[in-house]
């Protein structure tokens, strides 16, 4: 990623609203063609960060660069970006074609060319037949596509997406995720995507930055962030995690989990002998064994059937543990609520967390 | 069950609608039709109107240049006051609309407060200010700027001035509401599509505020047409508009002519209202083009 030219860069950007700090000394670097997601709970500063790239908010400190140009003090209409808004913000008084051609009209593209390009953009989102309709006459998914067409027709340096799928229902959202991703890859357009939906972020992104309280907690590829969360916040916000307590052993290279005595490698985490450490294990990385096997003894409290997977909610000496087992898996046979089992996992899948 | 519910809905629909419909029917539509009937007769010295049907009143209005002058003056007065109110009102609304809700409310209340004074009192107030012995003239004379008094009253300007102080609040309130109902995202979307502030106003803010502009201009124009008190007191005998002629005809017991003039006024109002709506197309905000 670092080898690619940076399209958007935020350097030590801080934004305050009154007393509260919305974005706190944020550094971001978004490479050419990359799909970059800002993921976090509401109020974490992800939307404010996006709006500072667009110029709708001005940072109190720090600088924003688009293609190497410092745009911190430049008004939005002179910045090289396009945006898809949360509620699409299609102009209600303009037809679909007029909406899509609007940006080209503002940049002085001739009538014939802009009509041509608007139709091409509409074809890309598979809506060429709707050019003469008005936004109100379209379904949510169609409006979404028009909003995307209106943005990509500008061929911007960066495409900003502000929770654009939030207004759609679940099935449509999944369909649009796939479309959005393939469109973005076809066009090779750098994209910043703001979402609070972890599944969306995992599906779409090249890089995910998990934000909290105006700071990035962790950023990396979806699998990096999901498989190796650095702290408790990331481990529990992005997917579910079982959190176990452990203690670092002599050399500082391994930790022993209190409940089971299993030793796990510490990896990059460091500490000295006897330090407490929190360890995360994904529910799908845990397995259920019959009583008597090695591992943590537990009692099944609830079995939730979800089709592809089955979630087992277990009680291990007062701590809740969750195990995801593929539906129809042999280990499920004979399991009932109240059964005593043993939970186990491969130490390689245990992730020691940094204390916060 | 379903049909029972819709029956109830139907009943409720008509129960709620019937009283106002009946009221408007009895006290507006029927008298209006009656008025039209009256307008189709000649004058009579003994009755309310003559016994023979005739189109003489309308013929007179359409052919007599005196009425042409008055109709054109009425149109000109309505249009110019409407446009002045639009420009001033839009500017004011543009400043008031983005204020925090509480400040905005206070500003609007201040704006509407003068309307609590009766039009008659207000017009006499203007006479006291603009008259020969009025505040303006005596101040200008005491400073030696003028020798004789300026004739400020009994003019088109006096009427326009007096009416605008009454009508401007209607315009401002209409437009403030329209501007406030525009989602900020539309303006940001325009900016994101490289529209500078002027173009984002022309292509996005102005069309999206058209419902408020339409209701504001309609109110101002229609109220100008019927603002008899202000027109008479500030315009005097030289600044007669259609509404003054209606009154003069009524006081001269020429009821059929008064009725015909009323319909001329009504036609004028409908035509201009239609033009305003056709020009502004407030329905486009709803996406009907």
Give me some keywords for this one:
heterodimer; A: 356 residues; alpha+beta; OB fold (Dihydrolipoamide Acetyltransferase, E2P); 20 strands; globular; B: 289 residues; mainly alpha; MetI-like fold; 75% helix; 0% strand
Question: Short summary of the structure?
Answer:
Chain A is of the alpha+beta class.
Topology:
The complex is a heterodimer of chains A (356) and B (289).
Chain A: E1 6-17, E2 20-31, E3 35-39, H1 46-54, E4 61-66, E5 69-70, E6 81-84, H2 96-106, H3 111-124, H4 140-152, E7 158-162, H5 170-187, E8 190-195, H6 198-204, E9 207-212, E10 215-220, H7 222-227, H8 232-237, E11 242-248, E12 254-257, E13 263-265, E14 276-281, E15 286-289, E16 296-305, E17 309-316, E18 319-326, E19 340-345, E20 351-353
Parallel strand pairs in A: 3-8, 3-9, 6-7, 7-8
Antiparallel strand pairs in A: 1-2, 1-4, 4-5, 9-10, 11-12, 11-14, 12-13, 14-20, 15-19, 16-17, 16-19, 17-18
Helix pairs in contact in A: 2-3, 2-4, 3-4
Chain B: H1 2-39, H2 56-63, H3 65-96, H4 101-112, H5 119-130, H6 135-142, H7 156-180, H8 184-192, H9 197-208, H10 210-225, H11 228-235, H12 242-251, H13 255-280
Overall description:
The complex is a heterodimer of chains A (356) and B (289). Chain A has two domains: 6-232, 3-Layer(aba) Sandwich (Rossmann fold), CATH 3.40.50.300; 240-353, OB fold (Dihydrolipoamide Acetyltransferase, E2P), CATH 2.40.50. Chain A contains eight helices and 20 strands. Chain A has helices at 46-54, 96-106, 111-124, 140-152, 170-187, 198-204, 222-227, 232-237; strands at residues 6-17, 20-31, 35-39, 61-66, 69-70, 81-84, 158-162, 190-195, 207-212, 215-220, 242-248, 254-257, 263-265, 276-281, 286-289, 296-305, 309-316, 319-326, 340-345, 351-353. In chain A, helix 2 (96-106) crosses helix 3 (111-124), helix 2 packs parallel to helix 4 and helix 3 (111-124) packs across helix 4 (140-152). Chain A is globular. Chain B has a single domain (69-286), classed as MetI-like fold. Helices cover 75% and strands 0% of the residues of chain B. Chain B is globular. The mean pLDDT of chain B is 91. The chains are: A alpha+beta (356), B mainly alpha (289). At the A-B interface, strand 6 and helix 2 of A face helix 8 and helix 9 of B.
């Amino acid at each position: 990623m670092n080898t690619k030219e940076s399209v958007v860069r935020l350097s030590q950007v801080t934004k305050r609203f009154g007393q509260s700090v919305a974005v706190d000394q944020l550094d971001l670097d978004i490479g050419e063609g990359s799909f970059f997601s800002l993921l976090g709970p509401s109020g974490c500063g992800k939307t404010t960060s996006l709006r500072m790239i667009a110029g709708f908010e001005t940072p109190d400190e720090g600088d924003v660069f688009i293609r190497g140009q410092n745009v911190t003090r430049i008004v939005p209409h002179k910045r090289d970006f396009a945006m898809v808004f949360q509620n699409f913000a299609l102009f209600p008084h303009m037809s679909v074609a007029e909406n899509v051609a609007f940006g080209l009209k503002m940049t002085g593209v001739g009538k014939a060319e802009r009509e041509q390009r608007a139709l091409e953009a509409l074809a890309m989102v598979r809506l060429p037949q709707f050019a003469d309709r008005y936004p109100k006459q379209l379904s949510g998914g169609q409006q979404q596509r028009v909003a995307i067409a209106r943005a990509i027709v500008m061929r911007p340096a960066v495409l900003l997406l502000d929770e654009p799928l939030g207004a759609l229902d679940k099935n449509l959202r999944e369909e649009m995720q796939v479309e959005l991703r393939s469109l973005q890859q076809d066009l090779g357009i750098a994209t910043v995507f703001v979402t609070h939906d972890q599944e969306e972020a995992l599906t779409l992104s090249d890089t995910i930055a998990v934000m909290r309280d105006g700071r990035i907690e962790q950023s990396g590829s979806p699998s990096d962030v999901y498989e190796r969360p650095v702290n408790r916040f990331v481990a529990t916000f992005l997917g579910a995690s079982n959190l176990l307590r452990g203690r670092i052993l002599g050399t500082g290279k391994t930790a022993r989990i209190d409940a089971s005595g299993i030793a796990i490698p510490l990896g990059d985490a460091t500490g000295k002998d006897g330090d407490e450490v929190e360890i995360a294990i994904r529910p799908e990385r845990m397995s259920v064994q019959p009583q008597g096997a090695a591992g943590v003894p537990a009692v099944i409290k609830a079995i939730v059937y979800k089709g592809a997977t089955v979630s087992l909610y277990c009680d291990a000496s007062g701590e809740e543990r969750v195990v995801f087992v593929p539906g129809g898996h042999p280990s499920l046979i004979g399991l009932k609520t109240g059964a005593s089992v043993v939970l186990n996992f491969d130490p390689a899948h245990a992730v020691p967390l940094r204390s916060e | 069950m379903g049909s029972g519910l819709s029956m109830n809905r139907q009943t409720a629909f008509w129960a709620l609608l019937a009283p106002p419909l009946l009221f408007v029917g009895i006290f507006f539509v029927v008298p209006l039709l009656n008025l039209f009937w009256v307008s189709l007769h000649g004058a009579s010295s003994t009755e309310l109107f003559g016994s023979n049907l005739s189109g003489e009143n309308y013929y007179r209005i359409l052919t007599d240049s005196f009425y042409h002058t008055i109709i054109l003056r009425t149109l000109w007065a309505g249009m110019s006051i409407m446009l002045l109110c639009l420009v001033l009102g839009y500017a004011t609304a543009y400043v008031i609309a983005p204020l925090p809700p509480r400040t905005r409310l206070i500003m609007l209340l201040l704006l509407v407060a003068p309307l609590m004074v009766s039009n008659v009192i207000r017009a006499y107030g203007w006479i006291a200010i603009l008259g020969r012995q009025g505040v303006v003239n005596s101040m200008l004379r005491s400073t030696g700027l003028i020798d004789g008094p300026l004739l400020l009253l009994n003019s088109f300007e006096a009427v326009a001035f007096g009416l605008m102080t009454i009508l401007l609040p209607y315009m401002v309130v209409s437009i403030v509401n329209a501007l406030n109902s525009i989602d900020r995202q539309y303006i940001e979307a325009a900016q994101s599509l490289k529209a500078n502030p002027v173009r984002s106003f022309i292509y996005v803010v102005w069309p999206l505020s058209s419902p408020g502009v339409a209701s504001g201009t309609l109110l101002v124009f229609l109220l100008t047409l019927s603002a008899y008190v202000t027109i008479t007191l500030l315009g005097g005998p030289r600044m007669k508009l259609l509404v003054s002629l209606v009154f003069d005809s009524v006081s001269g017991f020429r009821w059929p002519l008064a009725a015909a003039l009323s319909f001329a006024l009504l036609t004028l109002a409908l035509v201009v209202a239609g033009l305003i709506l056709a020009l502004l197309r407030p329905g486009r905000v709803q996406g009907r083009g």
